[in-house]
């Protein structure tokens, strides 16, 4: 009897021990996975911190370059004032010599001197005047050269500023991708730590949203690459079209020249034949003028090249008023690099947030994907609610929302806030019909 009862009890206990050992094994494996995942999270956090640090360095460089540019512009202005004043002095001196005849040669000064001492004094005075004039001209040349050098240096620094802005905008895409990867990793970590099914479901939803964001950013990267390829193709197509137009023009010119030469030769031959016929049988010819008209060759003009019909700009979406109304809500919001919410915006974060709330559209998280959110048009064709872009297609560095009347609203730069500016003060490179 004891044997019969004890055997199942031992088997039952062994089964619990097996389950506990299996759970311990699963817990150990889970802890190992979590440790590896935590290492991945730490790496992604370090990557995000590195991108932010690099962005701050670029901002500091941009600020330094901007100050140096302002200093150069002031130095150029000061030099130009000095040059103008010196030019006026030289003109006045030349005018005085011309009007009053006060120019005196060295020989005249010596001859007209009352004594040797007077002659020496006059020579020294004239030498002083000549040296002063020479110094004046020399300084004038040096200042003018300095202006040219500083202008070149200023243009170089402005180019560096623009390159810095392009790099910052590209960094934004890297930051978004790293943040999305970090969100997925954290969601995985939270999912593994969750113990209740309801919590797991909520975390799964968060993970799905993070994966969707990751997919969206990957799509933005694809669109950015596509925009860059399209810009290159458009540039190549324009070059080929220009070459074709030049060939057509040259061919038309050659045809016209050949036709003109042929007509001239025909007219000469016909005139000679008509003259011979008139001399031989003038009595049988009704009229010499009739004969000349019948023998005259009529030149057929070559067809003019047909200019390609320009593609009309697409019609506006009709959401311009709602987009502008939404944008005006955030006047005064401070600029924050990488900012996407009303607590702080950067240029592309501002446009993305406005279109999402005004139209429900996702237009991309930085400038290059936003170029593909509509149809590229010229700045003059832009209407309220369209987007303005600065920089070349595929490597833009700033974006704003067109308001109409040559104005736009944007998040300008660090230290500033969302505000309205005009095309005249800082003009965009192209626009996109939204």
Name the average pLDDT: 74
Helix content: 55-70%
Read across the widest sheet, the strand sequence of neighbours is 3-8-4-5-6-7
Say what the CATH topology of the domain at 17-193 is: Helix Hairpins
Our measurement of the CA-to-CA distance between the termini, rounded to an integer number of angstroms, reads: 88 Å
From the coordinates shown, what is the CATH architecture of the domain at 17-193?
A: Orthogonal Bundle
Number of strands: 8
- Judged by helices, strands and strand pairing, the structural class is alpha+beta
Shape: extended
Helix and strand pattern: HHHHHHEEHHEEEEEE
Low-confidence stretches: 1-13, 268-299
Question: Could you tell me the strand content as a percent range?
Answer: 5-15%
The level-1 CATH class of the domain at 17-193: Mainly Alpha
Summarize the structure.
With 434 residues, the protein is of the alpha+beta class. It is built from eight helices and eight strands, in the order H-H-H-H-H-H-E-E-H-H-E-E-E-E-E-E. Among the domains are: 17-193, Helix Hairpins; 320-433, endopeptidase fold (from Nostoc punctiforme), CATH 3.90.1720.
What would you say this structure looks like, in words?
- This protein is an alpha+beta fold and 434 residues long.
- Among the domains are: 17-193, Helix Hairpins (Orthogonal Bundle), CATH 1.10.287; 320-433, endopeptidase domain like (from Nostoc punctiforme) (endopeptidase fold (from Nostoc punctiforme)), CATH 3.90.1720.
- The chain is built from eight helices and eight strands.
- It has helices spanning 2-100, 106-111, 116-193, 197-280, 288-295, 320-328, 347-359, 367-371; strands at residues 340-341, 344-345, 375-377, 387-390, 398-404, 407-410, 419-422, 430-433.
- A hairpin with an 8-residue loop joins strand 6 (407-410) and strand 7.
